[in-house]
Design a protein that fits this description.
Elements lengths: L1 E7 L4 H15 L3 E6 L11 E9 L2 E2 L1 H16 L2 E7 L8 H18 L4 E8 L1 E2 L6 H10 L4 E2 L3 H17 L8
Parallel strand pairs: 1-2, 1-3, 3-5, 5-6
Antiparallel strand pairs: 3-4, 7-8
Helix pairs in contact: 1-5
């Protein structure tokens, strides 16, 4: 089974998560291709998709949304898993709980009608103050625990392993060994 692990990353954290997920899926015997969504030309040759994007202003990055728009027919016909990389774990209490409840449905609302989403997970990434404008740095001081790497690798692994369990249980696509 061929799986596209596609990503849209602003500063590299989402790319690193996508590479990690791709490697994790490959350990389960899946043929994976990890690629920036802005560089993927065709999608028909894939049997499933794991797509992720950094979250800015409570939305996926433009190249991720454009990818879904352009390839919606292929994505609607095959299984799709989504991951969004935001900063819920960096937020000060009680904001992480609110973010985990409110953010996931909002992020996929514009995609849900066009894509057969099997699952969607929101994970935290890396935040560096130098990546933020002045207003962003002020907001970071007020709302978060500060800059840092908030990626929860065991949680990401568990999610990727769950994706792999589903994919390896699906019937093999016609014409594939």
């Amino acid at each position: 089974m061929r799986v596209l692990v596609g990503y849209a990353s602003a500063h590299g954290s989402t790319r690193e998560i996508a590479e990690h997920v791709g490697a994790r899926l490959a350990r389960h015997g899946l043929e994976t291709e990890v690629a920036a969504l802005g560089r993927v030309v065709g999608t028909a040759e894939f049997d499933a998709y794991v797509l992720g994007s950094a979250v800015h202003d409570q939305r996926w990055l433009p190249e991720a949304r454009a990818f879904v728009d352009e390839h919606a027919p292929d994505l609607a016909a095959k299984p799709v898993w989504l991951f969004s990389v935001g900063m819920p774990d960096a937020l000060r209490w009680p904001l992480p709980g609110l973010a985990r409840v409110l953010q996931p449905p909002a992020l996929v609302a514009e995609l849900a009608g066009r894509v057969s989403i099997r699952d969607h997970v929101v994970v935290s990434g890396v935040v560096r103050s130098e990546h933020l404008p002045l207003l962003g740095r002020v907001a970071m001081l007020l709302l978060t625990r500060g800059a840092g790497d908030y990626r929860d690798w065991p949680r990401i692994d568990a999610w990727a392993d769950g994706v792999a369990r589903v994919l390896t249980a699906l019937p093999r696509p016609r014409g594939r060994p």
